[in-house]
Amino acid sequence: MRPRGGLDTTPFGNARSCHHAAVPNLRFLRGYNDAVVLGLARSGAVTRVDLAERSGLTPQAVSKVVGRLIADGLLVESGTRNVGVGKPRTLLKLVADSRLALGAQVERDELRVVLTDLAGDVLDRAVAPLPADFAPETFVAELARLVDPLRDERLLGVGIGFVGPLDHRTGVVHDATALPKWHDVPLRELAEHRLGLPVVVDKDTNAAIVAESWRRGEEWRDAVLVLVGTGVGVGLLLDGRVHRGARTNAGEYGHTTIRLDGPRCVCGRTGCVEAVHNLAARAGDLAAATAVVGTAVADLVQLLDVDHVVLAGRAVLAEPEAYLAGVRAALPTAQWLPVAVGVTPLADDVVAAGAAMLVLSEFYGRPR
Ligand SMILES: [Zn+2]
After folding, report:
1. Distance from residue 300's CA to the centre of ligand 1 (Å)
2. End-to-end CA distance of the chain
3. Across 198-330, where does the E strand assignment appear?
4. Which fold does the domain 219-346 belong to in CATH?
5. Fold match, 98-207+352-359 / 219-346
6. From ligand 1's centre to the CA of 276, what distance in Å?
7. Which of 121, 120, 99, 103 is closest to 112 using CA atoms?
8. Total Cβ atoms within 10 A of residue 95
9. DSSP assignment, residue 26?
C-alpha cells in the first residue's frame, strides 16, 4: 500500500464508473496489472492459465504479478484443479481480509461508519448522532472519532456517502439540501487531512446502488435504488454503470415536481416528491406516503425502462411491506415489462457499505 503524504488533489477514479472502472486508481497499487489480476481473482478461485487467458497478459507477466501479490498476502495458493492431460493446476484465491476499507453514511441527523474486507462484507460498524444543522468541522471531528478505533494498517481508504448535491470528482459538497452550513465545502480534502487516509466522496444514493450492484454481479444492469430517509433520492444503474451525469449530480429525484400546487420543499421549490412524501409521512398517512413513492418509481420505470427496483432508507425499513405494496400497485402491469421490486438486504448498512465498496472498486481492475 502506498504511503500517503499531504493532500492529493487528483480526482479519485473515473467519475462516470464505479466497480466497472476501466482504469483503476493507482493511489492504491503498484500497477495496472496487479489491479487486473485482483479483479479477476475477485469472482472466485483462478489458475495462472485462467489469468493469462482472461487478462491478455503473457504467462511470464502473470507469474511475476502473482508472485508479488502472494508475497504481499493478497493472494494465496489453495488446492488444485485437474485439467485432464498434464499436471493439476494450482488454484489462487483472494485473501479477503488482507486489505480493508471504511465507508460512512452521512444522514442529516446521524453518522454511520462500517469496516469491510476486500469482499465487501461488513466486519464492524459504529453509529453516532449528528447535531441539527451540523457544520463541516463538527462532522469531520465526529468522523475521526468513529474512525479512530477502527484504524488498521490494512486500511485502503475511506468512502463517504453524503447528502447531495455534490461533485464526486472533486469531493466538494456544493449545497447539501437542508444543511445550510454546507456550501462549496471541500469535504474530501478536509477528511483526508484529518484522517490521513485516501477519501472518496459520493452521493449517498450512488453509494447505495454501488453496494447493490456489487452484490449482484454483472448481469444486473438496469436498476434504480430509491433511498427514503430524511430526504428522497435515487441511485441509477444504467447499462451496467452508475449514472452520475455531467456534474455527477444525477438522482436528485426527490426534488422533481409531483404536485404543481404542492407544499413548499426544503430546496425552495414546491410540490417536490420529497416534500409531498414527508408531509404525508409526518401526518401519519402511510398510504399516501407510499403512494407518492410508488408513483415516483413508476415514472422512473417509464422513463428509463429499468427492470429492477430496490427500496432502501430508514422510512422504508420501518414499513417495508407498505412501501413494497405502494410501489407494486403503481408499476406497469404489462407481462412483458416485468419489474423486480425488493427491499435492500443490506438494510441500514447499504449506503455506508457502498461507500466502502467505492474505495474497493478502485482496488480492482478489468482487462482493457
Ligand atoms: Zn425539493
Report:
1. 17
2. 23
3. 199-203, 223-228, 232-238, 241-242, 308-312
4. Nucleotidyltransferase; domain 5 (3.30.420)
5. yes
6. 9
7. 103
8. 17
9. T
Residue linked to cell 447535531: 131
CATH superfamily name and code, 98-207+352-359: ATPase, nucleotide binding domain (3.30.420.40)
Q: What percentage of the chain reaches a pLDDT higher than 70? A: 91
d(CA 133, CA 180): 7
Domain ranges of the chain: 32-97, 98-207+352-359, 219-346
Interval between CA 269 and ligand 1 midpoint (Å): 5
310-344 pLDDT, tens digit per residue, is 999 999 999 999 999 999 999 988 777 899 999 99
Q: How does pLDDT run across 244-294, given as a tens digit for each residue?
A: 999 999 999 999 999 999 999 998 999 999 999 999 999 999 999 999 999
- Residue 214 in grid coordinates: 456489487
At residue 41, what is the residue type? A
Residue 22 has pLDDT above 90, yes or no: no
State in Å: Cα 211 to ligand 1 middle: 26
Rounding to the nearest 10 degrees, give the CA dihedral for residues 221, 364, 235, 180. Answer: -170
Residues whose CB falls within 8 Å of the CB of residue 82, separated by 6 or more in sequence, listed in order: 88
Which class in CATH covers the domain with range 32-97? mainly alpha
